[in-house]
Design brief:
Length: 154
């Protein structure tokens, strides 16, 4: 027998009028040149550089309501390409530290093989071949002649 539906309160739609005090809003395919989203900045190799958004990209639903401001979670933030900075590149020491951290997650403590993926060390404690007793396929782990301490992927 199905349960009866709960009658909850309906969400009230907040109608916020558009004003000049907020950020300028643009509909899809109508924003000016030089304003891009974060994803487009990333494709260009840029980052906002500590600056906030300069405009709002309205969602598809709000295109039908030009007199109201878009406050939906699907709206996008637009950034200016002129004030964006190049993405920071990590130093060699930072890359080495990240590689050591990933090596700790991908190296089995029993067989000392470093796999191409993270192992379930918290729940299982070792790799699947060690836990279940079979030989792993050679394309799943690094075959390195270096000592176990220095198995860097990069």
């Amino acid at each position: 027998m199905p349960r009866p539906r709960k009658k909850g309160r309906r969400r009230e739609v907040k109608k916020v009028p558009r004003s000049d005090a907020t950020l300028p809003e643009y509909d899809r395919r109508s924003c000016p040149e030089g304003l891009v989203t974060r994803r487009q900045l990333r494709e260009l190799g840029l980052s906002p550089g500590g600056h906030g958004p300069v405009a709002v990209l309205r969602c598809k639903y709000c295109a039908y309501r030009p007199d109201q401001s878009c406050n939906h979670p699907t709206r996008g933030w637009l950034y200016d390409v002129k004030i964006a900075r190049p993405k920071r590149t990590p130093t060699l020491a930072q890359e080495w530290a990240l590689d050591r951290a990933m090596a700790a997650r991908a190296t089995c403590p029993q067989c000392r093989r470093r796999y191409y993926f993270c192992l379930p060390l918290r729940t299982q404690g070792c790799c699947d071949p060690c836990a279940r007793g079979y030989e792993p396929s050679p394309d799943t782990y690094f075959t390195s002649t270096a000592p176990v301490i220095h198995r860097l992927a990069a």
